[in-house]
Amino acid sequence: MSTISNSSFIGGETLTTSDINQKFQDIADVTTADINADNVRDQSIDLAQMESQTLNGKSGIQLVTLKYGDIGTDNDLISNVAYGVSRTGTPLVDASGTNTALVVNATLNTDDLLRVYYSGRVKTSTTVTDSNSTHESNACWCFWLQWDITDATLTNWTEVPNQGDWSNQITGSRYAEPTDVVLSATNGIASTAIVPHFFTVDRNDGSGNHDVFTHEKNNVNGTYYYVNTKASVTIYGLRVVVGGVYRGVWEQNSSGTTRRNYLEYTTSTDYVEPSDTINVFNMQMSAIIQRTD
Amino acid sequence: MAYTFTSLSAGSAIDRDTVVANLDGVKVYAHKIETSAIEATQFVDPNHIMAPEYDAIRNVSTHVSGIYGGQNNGGVNLQVQFSTRWNSQLTSSTYRQVIPKTSLQIKFIRPCSYIFQWWTNSYSKYDGRNPAEGETYIMVYNGEPNFQPKSISGMSVVEASAANLNLSEGGYNASGFYAEEAQSAGTLTIGLCTASQANAYHTAWGFSLEAFFI
User: What is the CATH number of the domain that holds B180?
Assistant: First the structure.
């Protein structure tokens, strides 16, 4: 405790240098790493007592880092790149075909929270027709996150935690636990944003036929939250990959007991043709690291 | 460092100047406590920190750590807003209008970093005019809605290609965000703006702003 407690000089006694030294020593004692809550009144701590940054507020008390930037094509409303079907995803590239990423270069300490947002415009194209579509319209493209926690060369990309890469092929209409479970459990698609491939509309002419439509443009907005319960890592970069076409299914596990919802890569012509594409315009990404302890 | 004083030598006469210098030293030290004087373990509790201020009209709260604010429109509070060819140029996405009730004006008392997020439910009906399938853009503006050279989180709502597709092909969920790594102290005006080649309307929307001071 930091309350100074010292005895008064006693009347009638001889004052010594030792008595006076002790008076000052009492002050020195309580100001040696001992000032504490006893010295802080209610609501006395305000921004003036905080170590805020002169430019950006990234003091590390709450906000460790905040990064924001463009990925994919140029920051305009016109430039775009077409991506073909892919099971394990294709990183977003610029107009010259070079991979793009958000450079982060920040440490994610144990218990720190990572928040990532990405958004942009897309356009899907398909040659699937009424004759081979199932009218259920659950074909989709997926965007998800990869990070590089190896070095600043940004050449060692892996899926972020709780994000699967669709590399396991589901056979016999049954997923194999645990290898496929990342695709079936909700936490296996933690960073995934889904864009419909097409939708169907009943012609309402009595024929029972449907027309297949794609949105002239569509929007994608992805979010990702991760509290690092493991050792500290340095996040050198984050990037978005796009893959598809997937479809939503509800299948049993390998023992045929438990059913789960999950996304499955598909080449069925009910859902996708080999020439189908998704055009991706400029995307923007933000990564925020916050202290939680 | 802790308060340091000059000791009086044992057995010597009490020196008046030394005593006065030590007393003066205490006064000076008390005006600037240094880090090493403070207990190293956590001792500041929430009651020690300046209480936040809440603005009920804007739904914005200002804290020591930063600012948080946000609003929603929809449901029983339905207030439709429009993005039409009539209030923006048909061919130029750089001429933009603010979408009413989607903006916040915030005074930052310290430099900060912030993130603004938004969402809308929007529709663009078939209108039979050129351009067919006219596009409506929704973007974040920061201070000034017009003549921005970049898309700044631009999203699209595209006109339906036929009247019977108004709610399906012409209906969109749009959302986006904008972040700034270094915002100076001062007043920030931020919200949604729009440019349209068609006749879109927004039936529900929401937005939030988080600013970090520390």
Answer: 2.60.120.1340
Number of domains in chain B: 2
- Give the pair of three-digit tokens for residue B171: 């209906």
Q: Which residue has the tokens 């990404």?
A: A285
Q: Which residues of B22-60 are buried (b: 16+ CB within 10 A; e: fewer)?
A: beebbeebeeeeeeebbbeeeeeeeeebbeeeeeeeeeb
Which position has the higher pLDDT, B42 or B153? B42
Tokens matching residue A51: 């170590």
Is B185 an 8 Å CB contact of chain A?
no
B163 lies in the same domain as B71: yes
pTM for the structure as a whole: 0.88
Q: Is the ipTM of this complex over 0.90?
A: no
* A183 φ, ψ (degrees, to nearest 5): -90, -15
Report chain A residues whose CB lies below 8 A from the CB of B47: 42-43
Contact A98, A249 (CB under 8 A): no
- Whether residues B15 and B34 fall in one domain: yes
Q: List the domain range (segments joined by +) for residue B21.
A: 1-43
CA distance B80 to chain A (A): 21
- Residues A69, A237 contacting (CB under 8 angstroms): no
Asked if residue B165 and residue B82 are part of one domain, the reply reads yes
Whether residues B28 and B66 share a domain: the answer is no
CB within 8 Å: B3 and A28: yes
Whether B70 and B35 map to the same domain: the answer is no
**Region of A111 on the Ramachandran plot (φ > 0 left; ψ -120 to 50 alpha; else beta):** left
* Beta-carbon separation of B43 and A36 below 8 A: yes
Q: Do B111 and A50 touch (CB under 8 A)?
A: no
Conformation bin of residue A38: beta by default, left when phi > 0, alpha when psi is -120 to 50: alpha
On whether any CB of chain B is under 8 Å from the CB of A10, the answer is no
Q: Assess B57–A contact: CB distance below 8 Å, yes or no.
A: no
For residue range A239-291, list pLDDT tens digits in order: 999 999 988 877 776 677 777 777 888 888 889 999 999 999 999 999 999 99
The reply to whether B39 and B99 lie within a common domain is no
